[in-house]
């Protein structure tokens, strides 16, 4: 079967709009119809929200739908599912898993979270200690995860756990899909510097996961996790934004609207950061074009590095530009938001929230190593624990 071209995708999109007019069709019903028509992810296989079309043609569909004021699936609320869980399920899931999870994930009926980091395994994720022990057709999981965005609203979680402590740390890890409503799953809020509890810590006590919810082979969870992590870094650092989108937008608006705040020094710094933000935006466009040819590579780590650095420098400039106003903070109320908002609220919020950008999705220090070794080809750092069984590592 020949992959549809741009003209064919326009025709299919217009058929969808004619059969399910956005003005008179319930939002969820429209999104389900879009998925079933293969117009959710056009590059996904037919029957799984796609049409086996080139990834580069997705904007053709999106433009037609935007012009018709069709509803979207609120991607910020379900970003972990869209950016991390979906490509991993597609790459390593069984046919039954793909059919079960992808449609409600894309429609937004089920929110996902990520159970990777632990109190003793953050930057060194492969050192994780959460255990999964096989019991017949089930796995019994015990351990603790931390920095889990959206765990308080999630139905499903992507989870990695240690299934064999007798082998080196990068082996003996297995990847699961965990039902967050199962007995033994406890979610506790972690209040952040912003006052919100967007993150959580998750305690797993005797949680029973059917083997049918395992992704990939037993002991090959690190390989599966690499798909998740590379897609995560692209989704954080390489998201499509317009010119002056993201952090640079509010600063540029303030500069134009409030000339009394301007100084020569701030002007020079703003010009530099504006150019760097635009370079990063265009580099993100290039990265997305490279994705057309296959899975994301280590280049996504470079984008995520730039994202973190720029957000922190731009938000710091914004606070300085506002002077005394920049020292104010609107609301310390404890909240548990349903989505991650890097740029919302006021300048104080943006400044504080950006501090986490160099930690989440892989610390900047770890990403620098990845770029050095896997992009630039520099010698790898010595790793004395590479061939040591996990159980023999000092902790």
Briefly say what this structure is:
The protein contains 11 helices and 8 strands. It is an alpha+beta fold and 395 residues long. The mean pLDDT is 91.
Q: What can you tell me about this protein's structure?
A:
The protein has 395 residues and is an alpha+beta fold. 40% of the residues lie in helices and 13% in strands. The chain is built from eleven helices and eight strands. Strands 1-4-5-8 form a four-stranded mixed β-sheet. Strands 2-3-7-6 form a four-stranded antiparallel β-sheet, with no helix packed on it. A hairpin with a 2-residue loop joins β2 and β3 (138-145). α4 packs antiparallel against α5. The longest helix is centred in the last third of the chain and has 28 residues, at 264-291. It starts with 5 loop residues before the first helix and ends in a 20-residue tail after the last helix. The relative contact order is 0.10.
What's the arrangement of secondary structure elements?
Elements: H1 6-19, H2 27-36, H3 58-67, H4 79-92, H5 95-107, E1 112-115, E2 131-135, E3 138-145, E4 156-162, E5 173-179, E6 185-190, E7 199-210, E8 214-215, H6 221-237, H7 248-257, H8 264-291, H9 299-321, H10 347-353, H11 364-375
Parallel strand pairs: 1-4
Antiparallel strand pairs: 2-3, 3-7, 4-5, 5-8, 6-7
Notable characteristics:
single chain; 40% helix; 395 residues; 11 helices; 4-stranded mixed sheet; globular; alpha+beta; 4-stranded antiparallel sheet
């Amino acid at each position: 079967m020949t992959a549809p071209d741009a003209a064919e995708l326009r025709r299919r999109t217009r058929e969808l709009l004619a059969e399910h007019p956005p003005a008179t069709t319930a939002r969820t019903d429209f999104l389900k119809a879009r998925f079933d028509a293969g117009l959710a992810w056009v590059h996904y296989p037919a029957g799984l929200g796609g049409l086996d079309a080139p990834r580069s043609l997705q904007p053709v569909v999106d433009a037609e739908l935007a012009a018709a004021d069709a509803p979207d699936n609120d991607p910020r609320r379900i970003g972990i599912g869209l950016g991390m869980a979906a490509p991993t399920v597609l790459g390593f899931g069984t046919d039954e898993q793909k059919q079960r999870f992808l449609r409600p994930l894309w429609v937004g009926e089920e929110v996902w979270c990520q159970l990777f980091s632990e109190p003793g395994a953050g930057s060194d994720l492969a050192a994780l200690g959460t255990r999964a022990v096989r019991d017949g057709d089930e796995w019994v999981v015990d351990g603790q995860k931390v920095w889990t965005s959206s765990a308080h609203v999630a139905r499903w979680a992507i989870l990695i756990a240690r299934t064999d402590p007798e082998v080196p740390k990068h082996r003996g890890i297995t990847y699961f899909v965990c039902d967050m409503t199962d007995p033994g799953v406890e979610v506790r809020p972690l209040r952040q510097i912003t006052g919100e509890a967007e993150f959580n810590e998750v305690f797993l006590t005797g949680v029973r996961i059917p083997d049918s919810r395992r992704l990939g082979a037993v002991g090959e969870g690190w390989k599966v996790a690499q798909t998740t992590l590379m897609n995560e870094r692209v989704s954080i650092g390489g998201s499509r934004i317009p010119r002056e989108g993201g952090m640079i937008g509010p600063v540029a608006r303030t500069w134009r609207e409030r000339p009394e705040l301007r100084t020569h020094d701030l002007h020079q710094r703003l010009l530099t950061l504006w150019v760097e933000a635009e370079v990063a935006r265009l580099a993100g466009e290039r990265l997305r074009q490279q994705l057309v040819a296959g899975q994301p590579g280590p280049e996504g780590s470079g984008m995520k590095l730039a994202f973190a650095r720029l957000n922190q420098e731009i938000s710091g400039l914004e606070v300085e530009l506002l002077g005394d106003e920049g020292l104010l903070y609107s609301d310390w109320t404890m909240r548990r938001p349903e989505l991650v908002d890097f740029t919302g609220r006021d300048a104080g919020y943006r400044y504080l929230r950006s501090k986490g950008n160099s930690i989440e999705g892989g610390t900047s220090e770890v990403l620098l190593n990845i770029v050095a070794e896997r992009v630039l080809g520099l010698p790898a750092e010595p790793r004395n624990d590479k061939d040591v069984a996990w159980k023999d590592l000092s902790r």
